[in-house]
Amino acid sequence: MAAEPDAPILEASDLACRRGGRMVFDRLSFAMGEGELLTLLGRNGSGKTTLLRALALLVRAEAGIIRWRAADVRREPEDWRRQIAWLGHLDGLKGDFSVLENLLVAERLRGAPPAEDRIDNALVAFDLSALAARPVRSLSAGQRRRTALARVLLSQAPVWLLDEPLNALDQPAQQAFHAVLQAHLDTGGLAIVATHAPLALAQGRHLELTAPARVRP
What we know:
By secondary structure, the chain is an alpha/beta fold. The chain has helices at 48-55, 77-83, 99-109, 116-125, 141-155, 171-186; strands at 10-19, 22-32, 37-41, 63-68, 71-72, 84-87, 159-163, 190-194, 205-208, 214-216.
């Protein structure tokens, strides 16, 4: 169904998923190489979030295989989860923790030793330094989203799975996100992004979740 890039390292083959008893997509395939961006497009209910959740192993696909570096990710799910950074509609933050504490907890959960320079860089990238000590429950929706995106950046995961990352972001924050995403791609990272708003990046392909789903430049 899709033209494959050279040397794919992430492949989805003939994926099918149901939601609420309804098949939202079937026989969906794509492949990605280093530094690639795949933007998921489609109307509400077309399956963008379901696809991201299937790739993150948060829901089970009815059929098909997801391969990372030629290995079926379901055979070593914990290894695959270490390769991905997930951002859903919900920010997934602890409201009573400060911005900094949320980043530190994320690092510990990933089994990474706290690295002050990387944490500082993540705070600076999303203009959060002045908010580092503030509890997340006191932040605006946009500030919480920036904190969640800082956590993605901090993860250093090679694969980013992002569901509507621009939600609640003002123009400067959107520009910051695009800069961070571009840097991730420039260093060989992969990103799969569901969005209704266009991304300000020249490269990348689009996967339209319609019937049938198709990949286009």
